[in-house]
Amino acid sequence: MGNRPHSHNSNPECCTSLPANTACPLLPPPGADASSMAVRRETDKRWRDFLSVWVDHNRGVGQMREWFVKGLSLSGVKPEDVPVELNI
């Protein structure tokens, strides 16, 4: 196979050799904690590109962290218990 998942800010063309209707994973930039998403491979890449920009924006303004901490609170984790250095 030899296809590797790519970061949203690296060359997304690595997924072009995958079969049609195969998910092409988008990974966070180096230094970010583990998370990923995949979208169906399509000729029209606007949806994939939109999601990549949306994730970058929401991560950059701290929205991802807010959602993450709020989700943890549903399991009883207090916001102050989430390490500040956790890069979400």
Please summarize what this structure is.
This protein is an alpha+beta fold. The chain is built from two helices and three strands; from the N terminus they run E-E-E-H-H. It has a three-stranded mixed beta sheet, with helices on one face.
What's the structural blueprint in terms of helices and strands?
Elements lengths: L5 E2 L15 E5 L9 E4 L5 H15 L2 H11 L15
Parallel strand pairs: 1-2
Antiparallel strand pairs: 2-3
Can you describe what's shown?
- The protein is α+β, with helices and mostly antiparallel strands.
- It has one domain (6-81).
- Helices cover 30% and strands 12% of the residues.
- The protein has helices spanning 46-60, 63-73, and strands at residues 6-7, 23-27, 37-40.
- A three-stranded mixed beta sheet has the order 1-2-3, covered by helices on one side.
- The radius of gyration is 15 Å and the shape is elongated.
- Mean pLDDT is 75; it is low at 1-11.
